[in-house]
Amino acid sequence: MNKRSFMLGLMVVASSVLSACGSGENEESAAESGNTITISLMHRYQESNIGKSPEDTAVLDGLKRFREDYPDIEIIEEQLQNEDYSIKAQALAAADDMPDVFIVPGSWMTNFVDNEIVLPLEKELDKRPEWRDGYRAGTLDAGTREGQIYGIPIAAGPTHLIYYNADMFESIGYDQFPASWPDLMDAGDKLAEKGINLFSYGDKSKGYAMSSWISALTDRINGPEWTESILNGDGAKFTDEGFIQGIGIMSELAKAGYLNKDLNSVDNDTMVNYYFEGRSAAFVSGIWSAMNIVNNAPDGIKASTRVAVFPGVENGLGNPLSSSGGAGVYYSVNSGVEAGEKLDAIMTMLDYMTGSDSAKLMAEVGGFPAYDPGDFDTGKLHPVALAAYEASAAADATKIFDLWFDASIVEVLNTGIQGVMAGSRTPEQLAEETQQAYETFLNQP
């Protein structure tokens, strides 16, 4: 427990949270007192989101089917809001009192693996090769450490797609999204003359810039080999020209007035609402925003919305059709669960919740599952959702920085990019600060 307490020091653990959390021992006693297998499950998918969120709809449908097919297995389930889940899960991890099955964001995985909180699932998946091999390329990666799989992915898809108003671009002479950066800046200038922002942008909570912009732009310029070199400590630096260029592109858009001036003080919801109100011609987001448009955009905006990705960069080393993406959230199993009937039941439950049938349903209601759904009824999708799905399926997924970089580096980038976008620091200064944080991380004992 000493090691866990030390390594999980970054987690805020309130005594009031802990006192309300621990129920694992009681559940285990209940399970052992009879023949019924009992599985404790904690996650952030909710009944109230069924029909609204593709992930919630598909995962909870899978859980419902599992309960119907295995009525003798008792599931003690807790559904939490995202923020509540994060607080409680970290508190339980610090107290060594996690439930049997729980959600682990990819950015937590290294910490949870190092502290032996999660169970390696490689052997269990090897027993189920048809299920194991159905996941899209790369979606298991953020849940894998040193060749061992510790997490079953749920949804995937890009964090970078551009949703744009085709009518607005047509009015300034573009019958499709600009295919080069000079054309994009030209479009921004022409839209500004009409009092319209090229992009709406909202990074109040930090993380949006890195997830949806920086990860994709850096790959456009440097290519994926640069990112792998950074992750492996093989010589690439954040002060390399390509990284500075990517941050510079974002800075240039802000300085030119092509983004909303309150870009650091509004959240993603407000950013999207600016697009719905016609204040911007486009916004950058992940595939999850497709259903937001379908469900909430005014009819005229919905009808004119199309999907694109950032244009290629001249002499860039990356694929101009790539997008930062992959799976970011995983189901993991408590390391205290032993091989046997209970673990078999857990793996079957996870197959129901994330595997073939769940994936097909998720795709049909506008999501992008980590598991390849194969053929499904695309006729059920609104054209915006279908366009987002097709763009996601066609894109080469490149790494989302905040899922792979150490938290110390992520914090410097998340905070620093706000300064760059506000004009209080330069891309070069941010690159130097990030490199210093990176070198500190590399030099840790």
Automatic annotation (TrEMBL):
Pfam families: SBP_bac_1 (PF01547). Residues 1-19 form the signal peptide. Keywords: Signal. It comes from the Bacteria. SUPFAM superfamilies: Periplasmic binding protein-like II (SSF53850). PROSITE patterns: PROKAR_LIPOPROTEIN. This is ABC transporter substrate-binding protein. It comes from Paenibacillus illinoisensis.
